[in-house]
């Protein structure tokens, strides 16, 4: 078993390939390892924290953020529309690109990304996307620096989100896979993985194409990144897991792709990287959720085995449900060795290893208590509470996300949580603007926003942190 999958309960430190790559001139990878553990702890941050990460990015860029902050400040123009137009010219005009120093093009891409995150710029991009896509293609295929390639991957996603018809899956599928496989920078590989996942999710592609990309991500996970030159790099492997999960939410029939991939995600629960563990746990919960459905009247006379014995189902509850409550119907098997899976999840939900920081240990305990609960009760979403309300009904999933200062949305299923996490990766704090104004985003996650109660408090700045389910 590789270093990445050494037991977290046994401690130990996973060696990083970032240090060895630093000698080849890839400075952008030098600090990414130090951010790996903090990433998972802020997976479900609120969206009133500002429009961007500190480096203006959607994804963790490591030391890239430090270098970008040292670039010359963006000149102020009379309006953001003029600023966007100026940055588009700098990115797309051939003569301008030649005149710009390396930092100038990077600055233009960074400003472009910030504006597309914080604003819905569909009308401003009208008639310009072909030139923008052509310019981004050049930066992705032959970027002069790691920063340029990384920012171009992000710009591709944001342009696609703004104008879903701006490009096709076939135009960038091969270039992005080549970037993932051949580029030396781990940061660029990670950005390209996220871009490829977004490309397959938002463009009009066939089920076969989606499953092909999922198999590509599965190979990265199964080989701990070694097959793409990112051996035992937590950020790269976690990115592949996250995008695999996003694409799973778009499939109508997930049985075959689940059958050939589940074991790799269970293996990654034994990673020493918290972000890999959490991503794997969430995907396992999602796969479990997709493998079951609510019973219907047509099932009453059926003698087919639904996977959970009625008596066993009722015995799992502390407060016995009504006698006519039927267990969910199992459509297919996710992972055959359920005792093994449940034991790993139980250990992770109670682990007290000192090699994991106190903050990450809280994240680990809460996440895997919820994943274990879903494995036992497949149709119970994240933060599910079996405690009864005043009307005698179970409170259900309690995962709520504060959206700006206006309200909250409830993420009561794992597929909603997976998509919300993905949209926050792409849009940062601008998710509220796009969710309200961009039909592409709202259709991908059609949630109802409730008014935030007056006593709605932020839990250490994050109202939607995973809580252990009530028994």
Automatic annotation (TrEMBL):
Pfam family membership, one = IFRD
Q: Which SUPFAM superfamilies match?
A: ARM repeat
Q: Where is this region: Disordered?
A: 1-54, 291-310
Limits of the Interferon-related developmental regulator N-terminal domain: 73-375
Record field: compositional bias (Acidic residues): 297-310
Question: What InterPro entries does its record include?
Answer: ARM-type_fold, IFRD, Interferon-rel_develop_reg_N
Extent of Low complexity compositional bias: 17-42
Q: Which family does it belong to?
A: Belongs to the IFRD family.
Q: PANTHER family of this UniProt entry? A: INTERFERON-RELATED DEVELOPMENTAL REGULATOR, INTERFERON-RELATED DEVELOPMENTAL REGULATOR 1
The molecule here is called: Interferon-related developmental regulator N-terminal domain-containing protein
């Amino acid at each position: 078993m590789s270093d990445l999958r050494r037991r977290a309960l046994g401690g130990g430190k996973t060696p990083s390939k970032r240090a060895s790559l630093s000698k080849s001139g890839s400075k952008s990878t030098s600090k990414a390892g130090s951010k790996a553990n903090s990433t998972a702890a802020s997976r479900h941050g609120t969206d009133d924290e500002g429009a961007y990460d500190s480096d203006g990015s959607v994804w963790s860029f490591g030391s890239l953020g430090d270098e970008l902050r040292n670039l010359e400040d963006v000149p102020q123009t009379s309006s953001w529309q003029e600023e966007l137009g100026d940055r588009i010219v700098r990115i797309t005009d051939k003569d301008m690109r030649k005149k710009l120093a390396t930092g100038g093009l990077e600055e233009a891409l960074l400003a472009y990304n910030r504006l597309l995150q914080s604003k819905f710029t569909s009308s401003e991009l009208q008639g310009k996307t072909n030139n923008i896509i052509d310019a981004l293609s050049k930066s992705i295929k032959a970027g002069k620096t790691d920063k340029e390639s990384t920012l171009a991957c992000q710009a591709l996603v944001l342009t696609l989100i703004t104008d879903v018809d701006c490009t096709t899956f076939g135009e960038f599928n091969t270039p992005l896979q080549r970037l993932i496989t051949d580029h030396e920078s781990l940061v660029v590989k990670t950005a390209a993985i996220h871009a490829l996942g977004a490309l397959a999710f938002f463009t009009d592609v066939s089920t076969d194409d989606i499953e092909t990309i999922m198999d590509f991500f599965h190979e990265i996970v199964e080989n701990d990144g070694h097959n793409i030159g990112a051996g035992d790099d937590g950020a790269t492997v976690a990115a592949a897991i996250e995008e695999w999960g996003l694409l799973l939410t778009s499939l109508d029939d997930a049985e075959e792709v689940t059958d050939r991939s589940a074991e790799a995600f269970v293996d990654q629960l034994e990673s020493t990287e918290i972000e890999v563990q959490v991503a794997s746990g969430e995907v396992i919960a999602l796969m479990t959720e997709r493998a079951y459905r609510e019973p219907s009247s047509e099932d009453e006379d059926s003698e087919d085995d639904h996977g959970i014995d009625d008596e066993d189902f009722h015995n799992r509850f502390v407060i016995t449900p009504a006698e006519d409550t039927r267990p969910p119907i199992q459509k297919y098997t996710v992972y055959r060795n359920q005792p093994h899976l449940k034991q790993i999840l139980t250990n992770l939900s109670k682990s007290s290893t000192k090699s994991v920081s106190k903050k990450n240990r809280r994240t680990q305990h809460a996440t895997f208590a919820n994943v274990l609960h879903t494995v036992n009760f497949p149709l119970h979403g994240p933060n599910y509470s079996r405690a009864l309300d005043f009307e005698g009904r179970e409170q259900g999933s309690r995962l709520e996300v504060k959206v700006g200062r206006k309200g909250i949305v409830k993420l009561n299923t794992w597929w909603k949580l997976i998509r919300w996490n993905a949209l926050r990766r792409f849009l940062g704090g601008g998710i509220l603007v796009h969710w309200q104004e961009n039909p592409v985003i709202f259709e991908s996650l059609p949630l109802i926003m409730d008014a935030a109660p007056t006593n709605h408090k932020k839990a250490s700045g994050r109202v939607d942190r995973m809580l252990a389910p009530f028994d």
